[in-house]
Amino acid sequence: MSRPVPPTYAHWINGQWHEPAQGHYAIINPATEETVGHAPEATADDVDAAVRAARAAFDGWSRTAPRDRAAVLDRIADAISARAAELVPLLQAETGATARVAAALQLPPAADRFRRYARGAVEPDVIPLAPQPVKASPLAPGGLIGAAAVRRPVGVVGCVTSYNFPLANLAGKVAPALAMGNTVVAKPAPQDPLTCLLLGEIFKEAGLPDGVFNVIAGSGAAAGEALVAHPGVDMISFTGSTAVGKAIASASGRTLKRTLMELGGKGAAIVLPESGGAVLKAAVGAVASTWAFHSGQICTAPTRVLVHRDQYEQVITALAQYAGALTTGDPVDNSTVVGPLISAAQRDRVEAYIAGARAQGARVVTGGERPDLKPGFYVAPTLIADVTPDMTVAQEELFGPVVVAVAYDTEDEAVEIANGTPYGLYDYVFSDDAGRAWALAARLRSGNVGINTVQRHPETPFGGFKESGVGRDGGSFGLHAYSELQSVVWPS
Questions:
Q1: Where is the Aldehyde dehydrogenase domain (predicted)?
Q2: pLDDT tier for residue 326 given thresholds of 50, 70 and 90
């Protein structure tokens, strides 16, 4: 029996499929190494067509009544949910996510974000300011002057997203951008753009006007670079590596584009001394989520566990036992917890970090060897102990199922170690004393701090300190991120 021919996809521009002049490239299933489909290869002309479509649609969409924008976003959420049976298998095939992650954490959050920003579209966008008496001047007569600060859409937003959660990540950008009246050109990650390309057709069926949302894809950096450089783009919203973020910031600066960037992380989980019982168990489970949650391909993961020397070996033993109980294998199997990494290149990169840690004198407690699983791009859950803060694995983002353990002697030392990387996205504190954990959080140079949990709150402002990003989104802060403040002044 012959296998079905993998489908070929096109760009979505101005409400219709747009065939690429430069052809297509293959999207590979990380678990089977088979071709899932063929994505379109964007040229500068394709990017220009998408930006021009978004620019032409901006006036009409930005002037659409907020309640009408809200209705469209609600219908988009319903349409995404209604096509779950089609979208979830495709998401799983192109990302390598386990069944649990694909079904619960890939598609549902995307629909939820459109529902959230349907409400956001009708949130007040006017901040009234108290009238002020102003004296006459050569500029104008005096009097009582009234004013308001009003949030206005930025314009055309280029959304460039990462490969780990393609649909949810893009929804987190597009939904608030559309709610505020912006138009969008989306550029998904090269490794898994197929589900995102289907969004154009879904959005049109939900009633989104042509040109308001466009999607282009490409196998390398060229499409993203063309989008960032395009003079018709007013803002770039990017999620991905710090290195690429710096390049985008530099290129955006040439035309003074607004930027929102969520970049890399090197999360520290600080286990404070004498934490015991439920708190210590919670700390172990939280750190182990680095292995269990999408094979460590998440920027907020607690990839460094910082433990007081008196409890260090106890925590190492507990983590090793946890890792040993995790099933690595085919993500389609419901019993699998740890699936493949996105590509052979990423697998090789993570393996090189592990080898480098050995060479620097660290102790690989568990994992560290390639699993006997073929085909697929697998890395075993790996725990590296006896790590010093200056080692490469303690400083750089690996983006794989690897946890490094660092011992400390004092709280001051723990804070110094936690703050001692270029990153500052998400850190964690585990303690029986919530007040002590709260006080320690204030010393962490991190945009987010979890106390005794790795759970997220959907309304918090999300972003990073230092090289982990610029700006904040999430909740109503996402509406702020995709808007400009305009002051309107009048004589009372």
A1: 17-488
A2: very high
Which residues neighbour 229 within 8 Å (Cβ) at sequence distance 6 or greater?
251, 254, 255
Active-site residue 299, yes or no?
yes
**């500052």: which residue's tokens?**
424
State the average pLDDT over residues 444-451.
Answer: 98
pLDDT of residue 226: 97
Length of the chain (residues):
492
Domains in the chain with CATH codes: 11-263+468-491 (3.40.605.10), 268-463 (3.40.309.10)
Q: How far is CA 256 from CA 232, 329, 368, in A?
A: 12, 46, 45
Q: Residue 102 gets which letter from DSSP?
A: I
Helix axes 166-179, 194-205, angle to 10 degrees: 40
The pTM for the full model equals 0.96
Check residue 2 and give its pLDDT.
59
Instruction: Give the active site residue among 262, 351, 397, 467.
Output: 262
pLDDT of residue 222: 95
pLDDT value of residue 327? 96
Tell the burial category of 100 from Cβ atoms under 10 Å away from its Cβ (0-12, 13-18, 19+): middle
What are the DSSP calls for 65-101, one per residue? -HHHHHHHHHHHHHHHHHTHHHHHHHHHHHH---HHH
Question: What would the two tokens of residue 231 be?
Answer: 């003079």
- For residue 285, give both structure tokens: 């489970």
In angstroms, rounded to a whole number, what is the distance separating the alpha carbons of residues 419 and 92? 35
User: What is the rounded distance in angstroms from the CA atom of residue 370 to the CA atom of residue 50?
Assistant: 42
**Catalytic entry in 94, 159, 196, 299:** 299
